[in-house]
Specification:
Helix content is 53%, strand content 14%. The chain is α/β, with parallel strands linked by helices. The longest helix has 106 residues.
């Protein structure tokens, strides 16, 4: 079939006839059909790509959210664990604070007790205060007696003693006339060694006990009294060592101190020395060392061995010990 299309227009040149047969129309129709199909396929593909992209985006977003959730849960668990650790540390710190408060209260209590005992010893010392010159003379006599007793213990031979002179003769000048001189010395049995035997007997039960004697440097009477007390303890079989304590003041009487928590034997020995010293006229009192046993104020001058902090008993000799 042939279709003729006139191609003439008024005033224009004529065109040639365009002829199209049915096959060409069918070809164009088939081409258009294919184009439509291709367009549909492309549209479907685009829609499918969009759907796939949306699905993948949803999956990726879900994975990211799941990972973030896991990370959040892990962070939350770590935070809870750290909070528990911090709470435990706070609880431990509170317990430590309570322990420190108890220790401080105990130290305050011991300090108050030591102050009360020191005040009692001071009151006793003031009530029994005697002339300082008489005290020095008495201490010198005791020290001399101790030295004589040690000499007799080393040499048991009889000792020739000078009888006591009357006051008039003792006060006579050196260039006095022969008629005013003292009578010739006589031989007499050796005097008994002070202190009394009950004093030594009460301490010999604790023979071998170590004691550190701290003599206050500021107390004038303390060195002689320390020498006498050290001699007493040596006679009783104790192991005393003496140090001069400088840089410390305000201690009155003889204070026997023991380490906190000492065994019953040490407490008993300390009480025995306090009772023994009181029995011969010393102003003695017992107490606990109100600090670390190995620490002390001031300076201790004495033997290098043993250490001044080794002995379990300390005998501090202050002012007005008698």
């Amino acid at each position: 079939m042939t279709i003729s299309v006139p191609g003439t227009v008024t005033g224009m040149r004529s065109n040639t006839l365009v002829t199209m047969d049915i096959e060409q129309l069918r070809g164009w129709s088939a081409f258009l059909d294919r184009a439509v199909v291709v367009s549909l396929v492309v549209a479907v593909a685009a829609v499918a790509a969009l759907g796939i992209t949306t699905w993948l985006s949803s999956r990726v977003g879900g994975a990211v959210r799941a990972r973030e959730h896991v990370a959040f849960l892990q962070y939350k668990a770590e935070t809870g664990k750290r909070a528990a650790e911090l709470e435990q540390e706070v609880s431990t710190a509170r317990e430590r604070i309570v322990e420190l408060e108890r220790a401080a209260n105990a130290a305050d209590t011991r300090a108050a007790e030591a102050t009360r005992e020191s005040a009692a010893a001071s009151a006793k010392a003031r009530s029994a205060e005697v002339d300082a010159e008489e005290v020095r003379k008495r201490v010198a006599e005791l020290g001399k007696a101790v030295m004589e007793a040690r000499a007799r213990a080393a040499d048991p031979a009889p000792v020739t003693a000078q009888p006591p002179q009357p006051k008039e003769q003792a006060a006579a000048p050196e260039n006095a006339a022969p008629s005013q001189a003292a009578p010739p010395p006589a031989t007499s049995p050796p005097p008994t060694s002070p202190p009394s035997s009950p004093f030594l007997a009460s301490l010999k039960k604790y023979a071998g006990t170590k004691a550190a004697v701290y003599v206050l440097d500021e107390a004038r009477d303390a060195p002689a009294i320390g020498l006498a007390i050290s001699g007493y303890l040596g006679e009783a079989g104790w192991a005393p060592s003496t140090w001069t304590w400088t840089g410390v003041s305000g201690i009155l009487g003889v204070v026997v101190l023991i380490k906190e928590g000492s065994d019953p034997a040490t407490n008993e020995a300390a009480s025995a020395i306090v009772d023994a010293l009181r029995s011969v006229g010393f102003n003695a009192a017992k107490g606990d060392w109100p600090a670390n046993w190995s620490r002390y104020r001031g300076t201790l001058n004495g033997p290098e061995t043993p250490s001044p902090t080794e002995a379990p008993i300390r005998i501090v000799i202050g002012s007005k010990a008698r």
